[in-house]
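Repro:
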Amino acid sequence: MKKYEELKVGVLALQGAFREHRLMLERLGCSVVEVRLPRHLEGLDGMVIPGGESTAIGKLMVEWKLLEPIREMAQGGFPLWGTCAGMIMMARRITERERVMEQHRLGLLDATVVRNAFGRQRESFEADIEVKGFDAPFHAIFIRAPFISEYGPELEVLATVDSNPVFVRQGNLLGSSFHPELTDDVRIHSYFLDMIRSGGM
């Protein structure tokens, strides 16, 4: 297993599954910072926005004055990965049941993300998905998961479910609608850390 001792990675720790991401990153050897205040962003090499409830995460990011600093850092090339609600937060456009959602967001990914796209909690599911560059399928866990319905030319689709993008990259930005932190498979986290090592390119 690759080790990433030289990296200092933040996990937004306002709401959602941040502890699981922290444990996975620590397993890979990273130094991990739970980000709750703007000062926690100092010295980070990259950051994860976990799953949870996107509306609540957005409100808390505004309340704790994190939304604008994180947006500015990401626009400057800072590697950022959003999982599930985190991917929703990163989108420029958010919809649910064909209704545009006017909620706080970072607005970074040139994509429309559909909230609860596969259904509510009882429609949560697991699936083996083919990921670009992986030599074996990844067992993905989808919980009230979104997917991407539209996207711009700079966004690269890395995995789909029923032709719907569920794992994407746009330069220094990574988005997944599933929860790799709830599995024992470190490959998605390693992908993000390799992305950081390469300067987000």
